[in-house]
Design a protein that fits this description.
The protein has about 325 residues and is of the alpha/beta class. The protein has two domains: about 10-140 and about 300-310, Aspartate/ornithine carbamoyltransferase (Rossmann fold, 3-Layer(aba) Sandwich); about 140-295, 3-Layer(aba) Sandwich (Rossmann fold), CATH 3.40.50. The chain contains ten helices and nine strands. It has helices spanning about 15-35, 60-70, 95-100, 115-125, 140-155, 170-180, 200-205, 215-220, 260-265, 295-310; strands spanning about 45-50, 75, 105-110, 130-135, 160-165, 185-190, 210-215, 225-230, 270-275. The protein is globular, with a radius of gyration of 19 Å. The structure holds phosphoric acid mono(formamide)ester.
């Protein structure tokens, strides 16, 4: 297996099956630190640089929390408008990263342009973690989701997935690539204008992913062991910021997971994931049901970022 030390985490397309399991093993070793709510000194000599060109609650703060839990330091920006990349100069990724690499030991970047973290990794002498790039990928989120499945169900292979939402979404791309390494059939349910692109379908076929598409969650939920939901009412991920207009649509029933649907159609032991933020696709009365696992995902999001930071910084083998 390739070492993670010094490695960029840009895409799950690059991940091999044994690498997923290695990451999950290390996560299980580090999880007690997060659970005890104490900080240790594993990364006390290291600094994380956060370069966020697009809004984030979870991804940026989970990386920062992970760094603090491991005793490391954090610097960076969460609003590129207050940097030279966001003003008159429109400073390039290359010029920005050529500075950031001296301010810390690992960079986590979120950007509205697909491929921006890959461009950063081209120029940086330190590891770059992709915190979500346009419609591209969101590898740390899907690693969090897979780890949640492993912890909640005790296995990944053999589970049937249902993925609901906008299939242009970066999480869906990372999910498709990740499931190519597991025995996990998946059904995608999306509005016609947000369905899997022909290019991505061809890629999934080439990667031997066992997938099909359906029009309505009711057609697919009964078989699912893992239900992963994303919004269909959402901002344009290719913009640095997309404000909510006066009118915002409601999620059609086809793409909504209600308590009634779960009670009448879902497997009793299925689990429901959502990386959040949400609109109305999972009503809040689902939160306190046996299916919901999105708050566990929030905790696991810190554990997973601790794991990736410890691995790429060479503190864990
Ligand atoms: N799930 C996720 O990426 O959330 P944020 O946009 O808040 O980081």
């Amino acid at each position: 297996m390739r070492s993670f030390a010094g490695r960029d985490i840009l895409s799950l397309k690059e991940f091999e099956r044994n690498e997923f399991f290695h990451v999950f093993d290390v996560a299980q070793q580090l999880e007690p630190i997060a659970r005890s709510r104490k900080n240790v000194d594993l990364l006390k000599e290291k600094t994380l640089v956060t370069a966020f060109y697009q809004p984030s609650t979870r991804t940026r703060l989970a990386h920062e929390a992970a760094m603090h839990r491991l005793g490391g330091h954090v610097t960076g920006f969460s609003d590129a408008k207050m940097t030279r990349a966001g003003d008159f100069y429109q400073e390039s990724i290359k010029d920005t990263v050529k500075m950031l690499e001296y301010y810390g030991d690992v960079i986590v970047m979120r950007h509205f342009q697909q491929g921006a973290p890959h461009e950063a990794a081209r120029w940086a002498s330190i590891p770059v973690i992709n915190g979500g790039d346009g419609w591209g990928e969101h590898p740390t989120q899907i690693l969090t989701d897979l780890y949640t499945v492993l912890r909640e169900k005790g296995r990944i292979d053999g589970l049937k997935w249902l993925a609901v939402g906008d299939m242009r979404m970066r999480t869906m791309h990372s999910l498709g690539y990740a499931l190519s390494q597991f025995d996990c059939p998946i059904t995608f349910v999306a509005p016609p204008d947000m369905s899997l692109t022909d290019d991505f379908k061809a890629e999934l076929k080439q990667l031997s992913v066992n997938f099909k598409e359906a029009d309505h969650v009711e057609q697919a939920i009964a078989d699912a062991d893992v239900i992963l939901v994303e919004p269909v009412v959402q901002p344009d991920y290719t913009k640095s910021r997309d404000e909510r207009g006066k009118e915002v649509g409601m999620t059609p029933a086809n793409y909504k997971i209600t308590r009634e649907l779960l009670e009448t159609k879902a497997k009793s032991d299925a689990i429901l994931l959502h990386s959040l933020p949400r609109m109305d696709e999972i009503p809040t009365d689902v939160d306190i049901t046996r299916w919901s696992r999105y708050w566990q995902e929030a905790f696991n999001g810190v554990v997973m970022r601790m794991t990736l930071l410890a691995l790429v910084l060479g503190a864990m083998e």
